[in-house]
Amino acid sequence: MLIKQEATENNYEAILNIWEKSAKETHHFLSKEDFDFYKEVIPQHLDSVDLLLWYDEGNLIGFSGISDTELVMLFLDPDFIGKRYGSRILHWLMENKGINQIDVNSQNENAKNFYLKHGFEVSSEDEIDGFGKPYPITHLVKK
């Protein structure tokens, strides 16, 4: 059974560990320098989102962060990717938190296709990310 829990600063190390494992599996396009940059930056942004931890049978499977109606981050431990946890979490967030916007790395085709499959549509694209890095961002909306 999927259980959510509000994250606190005490959970940041576990969150960063999941982010690192997940990003290594899904963000092959990042240079080593940029991977290290994001690893340093992410903890600085955790306080600015509604951060939830997601568990199944006592196992921490991932985390999500939202701001208003935007899903800012959704990362799963790679051991749990492909087992419908992402879909279940996304549906819960849409139904209970009103999520209708997502930004996704355009080069992360699996994530982009995941959100498109769940009814999101491309609204625009940027050639660089919010940090000025050369990673295109696709802005998605749910209509």
UniProtKB/TrEMBL annotation:
Official protein name in the record: GNAT family N-acetyltransferase
Pfam family, one: Acetyltransf_7
Classification via PROSITE patterns: GNAT
InterPro entries assigned to the protein according to its UniProt record, in alphabetical order: Acyl_CoA_acyltransferase (IPR016181), GNAT_dom (IPR000182)
Domain (N-acetyltransferase): residue spans on this chain: 2-143
Protein's organism: Vagococcus carniphilus
GO MF annotation: an example: acyltransferase activity, transferring groups other than amino-acyl groups
Keywords: Acyltransferase, Transferase
UniProt KW Methyltransferase keyword: no
Domain of life: Bacteria
